[in-house]
Amino acid sequence: MIVDWLIREPDTTIDGILYMHNITQWHLLKKVKFLRPEHICQWAPGACIVTTNWPPDDTWKPEEKLPAYPGEALKEFTSNIMPFDFTTTSAWEIISKLKHLKAPTVLTARKLAKYLSKFSANGLHDSGPLTIILLGQTGSGKSSFIRTVKNMADGTQEHPIVGKDLSPETIDVNEFMIKDPDDDRDSVRLVDTPGFNGNVKDSEQLRKIREWLKKGPTSKIHGILYLHEITQIREIGSSVRPKDIPQPPGIFLVTTKWDDEINGSREEKEAREIGLQENLGFKKGSMRRFENTYESAWTILDDVRISPATVTQYDLAMKMKKLVGPENWSSQFIEMLAGFFGF
């Protein structure tokens, strides 16, 4: 519920966090996962624990109230533990102190939602890297997307080969493991796939993807990004229906080449985007723009982490098996995803 509220206005700046806690129940803090020693440093100094229900004759000595655990986790955090005695004066003292605490980095609603989603019922914190498959026609920008993310994340120049025109350079399925810039304990596994509508039959490209999926049958797929070049009139498939389907978890139609000034103005591209959305029946919330920037790429990846799908590679491979035969499989592809992921 909190995550859902945060992502309604994802770019809103969060200036502080107040965690309200009954002083007589310190032992329950060890059950709050984001207050564990390895997590608390991420929020200090922009977060405060506000204690309530103090006995009238008690003296404010937080160091005497903290047990061994989570006391150790909060040992250097005591200056951010403040009492609230249910008076207006007390409330404004807390707010005033919070205003003077400056977080080390700007915290947006999206970043907070991303962090909290790790500890939800379907959280990914202890289940390995976030795995996202990139699909799309040849030249749609899959390899460019991965190159942008990877080069900025690890400071290297290693990147997928980017094809020119309609000559596909991604011949086989390739994996790229990338550290999350917000938390180096987390990783994202991006899967680059051969492009469709190129010189190689779509059925052969789809077979390669299926064979890769079957190599890790129990591994989870958390998201699928279908990239489409906004400067191209080529359609993904006009038979994709029905319209007004709910937003799928972890699946986004990502439009690319927004920085290409030769093939149309910004206004023309925005008009094409609306037409593409209407043609495919996608809700606006299911579409994202890759602006050929590090920030726009990670925004998309963060959105997948916040609302991930949870299916196995084997299950997805078996579903794709039905599409290997016909050469016009692409017209059914997103319909297949819609049925498989339950949106």
Mean pLDDT: 73
Share in helix? 25-40%
Q: Biggest sheet, in brief?
A: 6 strands, mixed
Structural class, by secondary structure, is alpha/beta
CATH superfamily of the largest domain: P-loop containing nucleotide triphosphate hydrolases
Rg over C-alpha atoms, rounded to the nearest angstrom = 24 Å
Q: Gap between N and C termini, in Å?
A: 19 Å
**SSE string, helices as H and strands as E:** HEHEHHEHHEHEEHEEEHEHEHH
Pfam families: MMR_HSR1
Domain G: 132-229
Protein name: G domain-containing protein
GO molecular function: GTP binding
Tell me what you see in this structure.
By secondary structure, this protein is of the alpha/beta class. The chain is 34% helix and 17% strand. The protein has helices at 2-6, 37-43, 62-65, 68-71, 88-100, 109-117, 142-154, 202-215, 266-280, 294-306, 313-320, 330-341; strands at 17-22, 47-52, 81-83, 130-136, 174-180, 183-192, 220-221, 223-229, 251-256, 287-289, 311-312. The strands form 3 sheets. Strands 5-6-4-8-9-10 form a 6-stranded mixed β-sheet, covered by helices on one side. A 3-stranded parallel β-sheet has the order 1-2-3, covered by helices on one side. It has a two-stranded antiparallel sheet with strand order 7-11. Helix 9 links the parallel strand 9 (251-256) and strand 10 (287-289). It holds the Pfam family MMR_HSR1. This is G domain-containing protein. It comes from Pholiota conissans.
Brief account:
By secondary structure, the protein is of the alpha/beta class. It has twelve helices and eleven strands.
